[in-house]
Structures are given as structure tokens and as C-alpha cells.
Amino acid sequence: MVVYATALFLAQFVIGFVEGTFAPSMARLLGSAAVSFVVCGAIFAHFAARQPSRPLVHAWCALSLQVGASALLAKVLMIGADSTHFVLVALDWIPLIGGLFIGTLLGITLRHRSFLRAQQTVQPDRREDAAPG
Predict the structure, then answer these.
(1) pTM for this entry
(2) Which of 8, 11, 70, 115 is the most exposed place for a label (fewest CB within 10 A)?
(3) Could you tell me if residue 64 is left (phi over 0), alpha (psi between -120 and 50 degrees) or otherwise beta?
(4) What is the DSSP string of 45-112?
(5) How far is CA 9 from the centre of its chain?
(6) Tens of pLDDT along 42-66?
(7) Gyration radius from the chain CA atoms
(8) Which is more confident, 115 or 37?
(9) How many CB atoms lie within 10 A of CB 3?
């Protein structure tokens, strides 16, 4: 779980760094949010596909660790800086929460499909064996 929280933190850090490097505009902010949604969704899907029990709970825990670490880092880096606008914070949270739900659902679906495929491989279709005779 710590590995995924670290991956989320690093992904959000890089996305935020790239976003902050360029002059802010609404198109860049929305593009950054879309990239964040896709990247975080992929991280959560990978996590959920490998988590056999309660993947959504574990995903929330990983997100909580990431948020705690980023809040602590932001507090340290923002000493004496201006206050953060609520709209920018909300714009960062929407892709994270969306990525959590969509990515976890995708990961659960992928894990379930691979389980069904494994079951079909282990137990071949018995219709061929049940020939009348």
C-alpha cells in the first residue's frame, strides 16, 4: 500500500510541477486534471487488480497516505506563502476521487476476468467429455 501511495504522490508531484511550470490557463488546468485522472486511475486499477480483499478500502488507505504526505510537504513548502484557492484544491481532488473509483472498479473487473479465465483453463468445458455413449 505504501508503494502505491508513493506512486500516487510522485505522479501528482510531477503533474503539479509540469502544470506550475507553464503559465496557468483554464485549458492547461483542465488538461492537467485529465492527465491526473488517467494516471491515478491506472495506479488504482493496478492496485485493485492485485488486492484480493477489500480493494476499495485499501485504495482509500493509499490515497489517505498520499494526501497526508502531500499536505505535510505543502505545509513545509508554503511557509509564508499566499493562501491556496479552494477552486484549485477542488480541481486536484476531483481527478483523484474519480480515478480512485473508476480505477478500482476497472482493477476489480480485470481481476475477476483473469480469475474466470484461470478457472476455464483449469477446468475445461465438460460438454466435450459428456458425449452420449
Answers:
(1) 0.69
(2) 115
(3) alpha
(4) HHHHHT--S-HHHHHHHHHHHHHHHHHHHHHHHTTTPPPPPHHHHHHHHHHHHHHHHHHHHHHHHHHH
(5) 11
(6) 888 888 888 878 888 888 888 888 8
(7) 20
(8) 37
(9) 10
Task: Provide the sign of the torsion angle of the four alpha carbons 120, 126, 128, 129, taken in this order.
Answer: positive
Q: Measure the CA–CA gap between 26 and 22, rounded to whole angstroms.
A: 12
Cα gap 48→58, rounded to integer Å: 8
The amino acid at 15: I
Of 54, 23, 18, the residue nearest 39 (C-alpha) = 18
Instruction: Tell whether the model's pLDDT for residue 123 goes beyond 70.
Output: no
Q: How many CB atoms lie within 10 A of CB 67?
A: 16
Nearest 5°: the CA angle 47, 120, 116 is 30
**DSSP assignment string, 101-125:** HHHHHHHHHHHHHHHHHHHHHHS--
CA 82, CA 96: separation in Å to the nearest integer? 24
CA-CA distance, 108 to 51, in Å (whole number)?
9
